[in-house]
Design goal:
Blueprint lengths: L1 H9 L21 H4 L16 E3 L2 E2 L2 H12 L4 H16 L8 E4 L4 H7 L3 H13 L2 E2 L4 E3 L11 H8 L3 E3 L10 E9 L3 H12 L4 E9 L3 H9 L1
Parallel strand pairs: 1-8, 2-8, 3-4, 3-7, 7-8
Antiparallel strand pairs: 5-6
The chain binds zinc ion.
Zinc ion binds next to α2.
Protein name: ComF family protein
InterPro entries: ComF/GntX_DNA_util-trans (IPR051910), PRTase-like (IPR029057), PRTase_dom (IPR000836)
Organism: Halonatronomonas betaini
């Protein structure tokens, strides 16, 4: 996988955002002047009912456009750039060891077929090859796709997501394994929580969440920036 990504990436010499020719950059695919406008997340983790979630970038401005292009315009190369940033982030925070296993949040089969890929799996593959750890993308499967959760109340979200994920019975129970659940965006945390519950039930010892971006609520965002 590593060489696949590297090869296609090195044939691309223009910034994913502004199309300027890339000379030397800090992050593959993004020129340094665009990188300057990325909103990096100053928070290391979020208090969430079941798990800690880590997200290097804030879902704003240019980063928001990149996520949109990845998910809806099929620009898969963006997953490479975001995956590198995610890998650097958890390396810096020392959140993994060589036995940590990455599990991408699955899409329902129909949705994945329509999109042509699962962006969470692409991200997990890039992170895995950067950190030399493994991905298990068939551990969980999603029985049905869920509607957008952003405007639902916590109770409604729970109801909609209940039973959305299942543990693949092809695997035995998990034994003393550490997992990082990978997704593209953190909004309410409900999806990650639901998947976490399933993995804990199957015997996982420690699970954290890692998403490329976090959508901060307006108040939170403003508060963070006024501090
Ligand atoms: Zn640029």
């Amino acid at each position: 996988m590593t060489s696949f990504w590297r090869n296609i990436f090195f044939s691309k010499i223009f910034c994913l955002n502004c199309n300027e020719e890339l000379r030397s950059g800090n992050i593959p695919g993004i020129c340094n002047s665009c990188l300057h406008f990325f909103d990096f997340n100053g928070l290391n983790s979020l208090d969430n009912s079941l798990l800690e979630v880590y997200s290097p970038l804030i879902y704003e401005g240019m980063v928001k456009d990149l996520i949109y292009k990845l998910k809806y315009d099929g620009e898969e190369l963006i997953a490479y750039t975001l995956g590198i940033i995610m890998a650097d982030y958890i390396k810096y925070l020392k959140l993994y060891d060589k036995n940590t296993i990455l599990v991408p949040i699955p899409l329902a089969k129909k949705r994945e077929a329509k999109r042509g890929f699962n962006q969470a799996r692409l991200l997990a593959e890039v992170i895995a090859s950067e950190l030399k750890i493994s991905v298990r993308d068939n551990l969980l499967y999603r029985k049905q796709e869920t509607p957008p959760l952003y405007n639902l109340s916590p109770g409604q979200r729970k109801l909609v997501l209940e039973g959305a994920f299942s543990f693949n019975k092809g695997f035995n129970n998990l034994n003393k394994e550490n997992f990082i659940l990978v997704d593209d965006i953190f909004t309410t945390g409900s999806t990650l929580n639901e998947a976490t519950g399933v993995l804990y039930n199957a015997g996982a010892i420690r699970i954290i969440g890692l998403t490329a971006v976090i959508a901060l609520k307006k108040e939170k965002f403003d508060k963070g920036h006024n501090l």
